[in-house]
Amino acid sequence: MKDILIVANNLEIGGAERALISLLNTMDTNKFNVDLFLLRHDGEFMNMIPKNVNVLPEKKEFTALGIPIIEALKKGLFVQVFGRLIGKTKSAIYKRKNNISGPTSIDIEYSYKYTKSYMPMISDKKYDLAIGFSTPYYFVDEKTIATKKLGWLHTDYSHLLGDTESELKLWSIYDNIISISDKVTESFIKKYPSLESKILLIENIISPDIVKMESEKENVSKEMISEGDEIKILSIGRFAEAKNFKSVPKICKYMCDMGVKVRWYLIGYGKEESAIREEIQRYNMQNNVIILGKKQNPYPYIKACDIYVQPSLFEGKSVAVIEAQILNKPVVITNFTTAKSQLKDGIDGVIVPMDSYGCANGIATLIKDKELQQRLIDNTKKSIYSNESEVEKIYALMGV
To answer: 211 with 387: CB under 8 angstroms?
Structure first.
């Protein structure tokens, strides 16, 4: 049997993490030994790891990367903290020198880059394939032994400023780089044209049967209420800048001013929650924008909504959007760079402008157009969203 190692950060609630769980459930463990190494054994999805996947023991040195520095010091992880501080200083210098602000990949990349020399080997075992599924890419490079190594892209690189020269060296060590959509590939190649030959498209693996089964496990009508003819909108994602949930209260206010009655529910968590709550207060949307917080099983909530909206600034390929389509919901997404690889506008979803007023107008138009809503629903029922065969592409890389 061939041996596969998958390395990821943690299993907190998120689209990439849910995609990882789906991948693990799809892999044929009768033919492959699958080991999983997590930097931290944290997250609501830990109990969803299949029993036939071998979870490697947590190593305390790697946990230093996902906790506040003061906590790492209390654990005695002094040299790892030293590496993090070097990375933080170098990142600040680089950003200041190059006049960079806004979303970047520099902080996290430098954090790993300057701590890697203080980390132990993940395993001394030699694998046929090692996969860097999320951002500890440096560790798959230097802390694993494998015949082949893969890095997995989950985001649209055109929106992330970074140290291109440094990241090029990192990505260059991989035999293949997995991209989850054509648009993610396009934006990555634009930034790193010399790596085009390494790219392989493998979409996030999603099982419609599991999504439908999980959607029946809970009745959420007491949480997702609506009064009269209010339309229930749902959005799912981390409360981070990329997801643009901070704009939801303003978008919702515009719709209310248009005479459209909506109640917009947000599932997720993250550092922008306080900013979102401030915007809810600012636009007096306390009765219209409701934060539901973390939900391990979001599918009953998708089933209960009338329309699913992804108002992101940028995406790789949203797992939640596909899951909403599987559950036959009218879907609205903003016109982020990869939007056209996410759905077919007017066929199985609607693409609306990124600005708050344009977004509000686009959603309001769909709400008023019952015929269009039904057409989107009917088309999702005709579409095939199962892609479990994507895992065969991984096996092919090992000559299987």
So the answer is: no
For residues 267 and 349, state if they share a domain.
Answer: yes
Lowest model confidence (mean pLDDT) among 76-90, 169-183, 208-222, 381-395: 381-395
242 and 192 share one domain:
no
pLDDT of the residue at 223: 93
Residue type, position 67, single letter: I
176 shares a domain with 142: yes
Q: Which of 94-103, 113-122, 233-242, 361-370 shows the lowest mean pLDDT across its residues?
A: 94-103
Claim to verify: residue 25 and residue 49 sit in the same structural domain = yes
Q: Render 106-118 in DSSP notation, one character per residue.
A: HHHHHHHHTTGGG
Range of the domain at 322: 209-382
User: pLDDT tens digit string along 347-356?
Assistant: 999 999 999 9
Looking at the structure, do residues 61 and 170 belong to the same domain, yes or no? yes
Contacts of 201 (CB under 8 A, 6+ apart): 178, 179, 180, 181, 182, 185
> Do residues 218 and 137 share a domain?
no
Residues 6+ away with beta carbon under 8 Å from 12 = 42, 43, 44, 45
Largest CA distance in the chain: 63
Count of C-beta atoms within a 10 Å radius of residue 245? 28
Residue 50 to residues 35, 79, 125: CA-CA distances in angstroms?
Answer: 11, 34, 21
